[in-house]
């Protein structure tokens, strides 16, 4: 396929670009295979360099003889192009629509992006199941690394190596996989050193309407916990939904067959409900004619904060089971690729200080989201503005990031990364020149050679010049668990994200610069450099 | 979204001048035995209500009292309750910590005795700084005694009963005077550049004869003669004629304030018209004067039937008249009550909370006040125009919006010193009725309203949006808010300057060192 076939007009002069916080600028607009460029040719830089994949939706209208295209981006920015000549305008619009709706992954920009400074190999081996297993085996020998999923033969959405309990052999795993939706058998997710308890995740068991059983599944779950202990299964569906799932062949672990596990149903919103919540929220944020009453009621009807509260509350509950009750936890919903991952990852952030560092958080995203098979490409295909018919889009990952932000507000010194770090991850999950968030699981990434032919976002984010933008100056390692408040009074709108194109961040940035400066001054005083020390000594001698 | 201020209610207040802070909890010093540590340090003033107050204390000490935890009602700490002339003090029994909780009587806004249960008799105390404290007292009779005492002690009837007259930390007399001189308003007007060729100081109100709720020294246009001032004052509610409140040296823009004119449906007053003209002329660069009525139009029109009202644009030359709908004190009082009710809900659902926040209207009112402040500040800064602001009496909404406009315009007011000058100028000196609004003395409950609370919330909102623009932090605001209600210092006691003078507050009480 040739991109040129899709580009009706590649260049138009005298186009006026207007966007938030910047003066409107007139210049030449170019459409390339992956970018929309605009240059006034005043300096040596382009004024606009927009990844077409980032475009969520466009609207066109005529204004006199010219046409205006409003571009709404997945990163929530809204800009407009005034193009002289209606025909040119329509051609440009058509080209953008065709290019932004390209479905073939291998034609996406990450496969063409080759910056000089970054190396193709860097960042892809940041985290491996092998490494996780090595760390785990320091504390316990109850677990083993299994390659039963080699070439993704047992489960297409798991990586080729997974950690499972040593009591279960590969043959039994295959049986268990057959009893779980999509073959997602229970795997190890987190080991809590303090209580020696674990968090596992899976998909729903396929009991069906007739209450089918699987001996291996029951045996396996029974073996994971000590006979005198109880474990908790957190099902992210309501009891009704779990019962309804039986009709379609799904189901849940019954009390009689899994007697030392206690099942808790905590319904968490997913899918379309979540996507519509995001759309309503962004709509409310962008409507600046709002009176305060309308703003609050729109915020309420969007239900975004309600969803946050539910997810965070349930994650706290999972963490509490492990930390306070000394019980192991198995988390699943139906497929175990969305709400399940929100809970396992948030629980780890609450419990494990390592996950609150920059590299620890990256590893967490690698293992609990990317390798765990969260379908990024499906879920992030469109953001809040798209008029296209919703398919499988849902801001599951964004809810997770928002929960992290809420916690970082409540514990401003416990996270090594800052808000910008989370916003950057949001941007790249929806549209990126890096390959990290491409595809829906490891198998797809393997098939398309993503790890060989694209650059990892971690390579960029960990380069020293870039990393410094993501460091929280107030960070001081906090080895305790952090229990966030989930009271409605404590949860706030993430203004830095949802109002980022509406209210200029200038004053907040200024404040952070000040904080950074103060912290730097403070640490310099605490650990004076040798030159400063000699000055101090001279002062002392002089007195 | 607003981060709720009342979440901070358990925050420890910094102690003042070495005296233990009064509300909040403070760890006790170990060596003291039974008596709470602060009592022995408190010297009793001569004018003290202390001895008099003792009469109302039926039981000075009650054992076997439990203080309920705010978060989980199952947790409670056991201890003793002490009742003094000024404080209710709870001392925890746990030998190591002996944590103390001090509640100032003047902070108490409601005491509720609830039905006795098997565990004892619950006593709920609501404070004006939004703290809610619940005790369980084992004996019903003790609970009743405390209840009756607190009802009386929390509602003093004479100024002399207030805490500030007995609060007497060891301090030299001259030091005390220095505190009162910290905020010299004459110096503040000098800082603004007045008096000058356009504005002069007027002594027409020297003995509070023209307006008993204004200060003695006032700044007026140079061209406004005494007959004009006196004539204008007769045409304004309670004699509150237009005076200078803020002057912008860079462009001669001025903010003036007054009360509503007594215009009724058709009345006119030549002197008042001349007064407004004089204000306009004092800004040579501008050929008009904004007149901002901060009330909703409907309220202002209703006032006309009572012979009051607003300026008729036809009668005053070159004025631009604007209504900005800030609601009255009764609406605001109800709004706060609704807001507090919402915040007191135990683990509400998100939608219940947001819905309650919305229906309280609190943020809507905050926005209205901010909008008014922004309008005035823009008129001065961007149009170099002068503005006359009033509401009905000109001591509530007018104080709010003038001080917000000042904060927006002048970085000095965003410093620690400047903020206290601003409060002394726009609130204290111009007769904001601290006694009535914050019910220091037992009085008409319909006079009570969270006017300055709203101002502090507006400042907090600004601090959130401009984190580097303020020298002070949230704690400072909470601290001042606390002392508006505490009556510990003489600043925020009276309704106006005249009352303070008559009480001779300056000599007999302390100035809050912010």
UniProtKB/TrEMBL annotation, chain B:
Q: Where is the Myotubularin phosphatase domain?
A: 179-514
Provide the protein name: Myotubularin phosphatase domain-containing protein
Where substrate binds, per the record, is at: 328-329, 391-397
Ranges of biased composition (kind: Basic and acidic residues): 1-15
Q: Which family does it belong to?
A: Belongs to the protein-tyrosine phosphatase family. Non-receptor class myotubularin subfamily.
- Which stretches does the entry tag as region Disordered? 1-35
Write out the GO MF terms.
Answer: phosphatidylinositol-3,5-bisphosphate phosphatase activity; phosphatidylinositol-3-phosphate phosphatase activity
Fetch the Pfam families from UniProt.
Answer: Myotub-related (PF06602), PH-GRAM_MTMR6-like (PF21098)
Which residues are named in the active-site annotation? 391 (phosphocysteine intermediate)
In its UniProt record, which GO terms are filed under biological process? phosphatidylinositol dephosphorylation
User: Which CDD domains does this chain map to?
Assistant: PTP-MTMR7
Lipid metabolism among keywords: yes
Query: Which domain of life, per UniProt?
Result: Eukaryota
What SUPFAM superfamilies does UniProt report for this protein, alphabetically?
Answer: (Phosphotyrosine protein) phosphatases II (SSF52799), PH domain-like (SSF50729)
The alphabetical list of record keywords is: Hydrolase, Lipid metabolism
Q: Which GO terms describe its cellular component?
A: cytoplasm
